[in-house]
């Protein structure tokens, strides 16, 4: 649909990636065959077909469309998508943010901005989309020591801007967060920071119909989330993009796309929801935890 060209660059990149993969499959070609014919590297093809290239050249799209035998209308639409990636920027590409966002997170932000559903399990920290500014600042100042005040300010701004996805007017992100009870009990910063943080979780969970928060209590015993935190993202049906998993640690961040591996995380999240308290019980636990600080 031509109207899609008015969408954000991140959505255009993923739409373009999906359409090009479908055209290639219909033409009976593999990605490596296409790369050889166009004298491209395999990594370039992979980035285009996964939507990871920040900018896609219209000339590259034209070359692919010619190779695949795309009809004029499809070609015009895809060139339009590519043009958006060249002429518009997603908010995280702004000069004040770009230097502090690592490549792994940068790729994730495009996926997060396009997702319709986000399921996250948090074992140590409050999930990013539920964090307060004070909580974020403490994390970056203490857990990631050595950062300058300017870098911390920019990182805080990035986190706060990401949270707008929960409150956007059109198609707000449907967000389900399963939180380990330890997240509620561990003091991050001083008591005032924790009181504000927990009150914020309670406010968001009770006021936004697109947000669901559940807590896994200590008494649940062993559970599928004990291997660590993770995020499962789901996308608009028309993009035909399968769900993906995002993982990160101190050294790196990466995306898992292999269907069997993603299915394991989806199953783990379903089990976590089953052992977690229900929404109202979880909200009560959050409110009770506030009294401890």
Description:
The structure is a single chain. The protein is 51% helix and 11% strand. By secondary structure, it is α/β, with parallel strands linked by helices. The protein folds into two domains: 2-88, Orthogonal Bundle (434 Repressor (Amino-terminal Domain)); 102-130 and 165-290, Endonuclease, Chain A, CATH 3.30.870. β5 and β6 form a beta hairpin. α7 crosses α8 (149-162). The model is unreliable at 1-6 (pLDDT under 50).
Quickly describe the structure.
By secondary structure, this protein is an alpha/beta fold. The chain is built from twelve helices and six strands.
Strand arrangement, major sheet: 3-2-1-4-5-6
Give the total of beta strands: 6
Q: In total, how many domains does the architecture comprise?
A: 2
Shape: elongated
Helical content class: 40-55%
Low-confidence stretches: 1-6
> Termini, distance in Å?
52 Å
Report the sheet with the most strands, covering strand number, pairing sense and barrel closure: 6 strands, mixed
Secondary-structure element string: HHHHHHEHHEHHEEEEHH
CATH superfamily assignment of the largest domain?
Endonuclease Chain A
The CATH class of the largest domain turns out to be: Alpha Beta
Relative strand content: 5-15%
Question: What's the assembly state of these chains?
Answer: single chain
Named at the architecture level, the CATH assignment of the largest domain is 2-Layer Sandwich
Classify the fold: give the CATH topology of the largest domain: Endonuclease, Chain A
């Amino acid at each position: 649909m031509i109207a899609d060209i008015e969408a954000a660059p991140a959505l255009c990149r993923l739409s373009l990636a999906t359409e090009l993969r479908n055209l290639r499959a219909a033409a009976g070609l593999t990605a490596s065959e296409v790369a050889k014919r166009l004298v491209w590297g395999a990594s370039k093809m992979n980035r285009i077909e996964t939507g990871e290239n920040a900018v896609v050249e219209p000339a590259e799209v034209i070359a692919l469309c010619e190779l695949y035998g795309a009809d004029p209308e499809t070609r015009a639409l895809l060139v339009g998508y590519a043009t958006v990636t060249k002429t518009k920027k997603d908010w995280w590409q702004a000069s004040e943010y770009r230097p502090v966002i690592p490549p792994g997170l940068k790729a994730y932000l495009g996926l997060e901005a396009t997702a319709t559903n986000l399921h996250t399990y948090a074992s140590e920290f409050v999930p990013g989309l539920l964090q307060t500014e004070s909580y974020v600042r403490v994390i970056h100042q203490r857990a990631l020591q050595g950062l300058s005040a300017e870098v911390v300010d920019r990182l805080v701004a990035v986190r706060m801007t990401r949270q707008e996805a929960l409150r956007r007017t059109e198609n707000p992100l449907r967000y389900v967060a399963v939180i380990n009870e330890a997240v509620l009990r561990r003091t991050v910063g001083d008591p005032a920071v924790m009181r504000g943080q927990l009150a914020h979780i309670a406010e968001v969970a009770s006021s936004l119909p697109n947000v669901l928060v559940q807590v896994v209590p200590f008494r649940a015993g062993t559970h599928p989330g004990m291997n660590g935190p993770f995020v499962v993202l789901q996308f608009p049906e028309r993009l035909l993009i399968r769900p993906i998993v995002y993982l990160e640690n101190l050294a790196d961040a990466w995306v898992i796309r292999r269907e069997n591996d993603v299915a394991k995380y989806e199953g783990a999240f379903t089990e976590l929801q089953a052992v977690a308290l229900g929404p109202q019980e979880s909200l009560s636990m959050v409110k009770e935890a506030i009294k401890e600080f």
